[in-house]
Specification:
single chain; 194 residues; alpha+beta; eleven-stranded antiparallel β-sheet; 45% strand; elongated
């Protein structure tokens, strides 16, 4: 019996030693999400509700349900999660004009992998899906949609095949208002209404 207690004690002490020695903390600089990614995220979460209007006068409203920040800043020797930093928001469409059957819920996040220094942007927005480790080239100058002008915007194209005419094909973002507008598969444009 004493031998069993000693072997259990040594096993437990070894686990503590492995867990304690295996952890390391990354510096704040390595965990910091790059400014262009944060600028886009912060522009979107600046207001809790945002509205879009189509050329024909239809309106759609969205409300931010949750904003969250997650940091996992350690790595062990065994089966542990990979370190990362993530800022995330979820939002949903409100009102009477709910048009689509969503295949996934609406969310946006930016994250940073401190080991590789790579940032990622994910946007799932009314069947629009975008996940990339780099931002597209920022379009300097005016971009037109529904006779409205967006200055200096990012244009994101979906990487998924879109099925319905109301699914979003192209999303317009800038660092002043966040989601500035979108275009559906049918070609209909929707612009942010302030």
């Amino acid at each position: 019996m004493a031998r069993y207690k000693m072997s259990s004690l040594f096993f437990f002490l070894n686990l503590l030693l492995i867990a304690g020695c295996g952890s390391r903390v990354y510096s704040d600089e390595k965990m910091k999400i790059d400014q262009p990614y944060l600028a886009i995220f912060n522009a979107v979460v600046r207001k809790d509700t945002f509205f879009f209007i189509s050329k024909g006068g239809l309106k759609r409203s969205f409300i931010i349900g949750q904003v969250d920040s997650v940091v996992h800043n350690e790595k062990g020797w065994l089966m542990n999660k990979k370190p990362y930093k993530l800022v995330k928001m979820t939002f949903s469409e409100i009102g009477d004009s709910l048009i689509l059957n969503l295949e996934r819920y609406n969310e946006m996040f930016v994250n940073k992998d401190p080991e590789t220094g790579v940032n990622s942007l994910l946007i799932q927005f009314n069947n629009f899906y975008y996940l990339q480790d780099s931002l597209p080239q920022k379009r300097i100058g005016p971009t037109y949609l529904n006779e409205k002008i967006c200055m200096d915007c990012y244009i994101l194209e979906t990487s998924d095949t879109i099925k319905n005419q109301g699914d979003i094909k192209r999303l317009y973002l800038n660092t002043q208002v966040g989601f500035w507008g979108f275009q559906t598969k049918s070609g209909e444009g929707w612009v942010r209404e302030e």
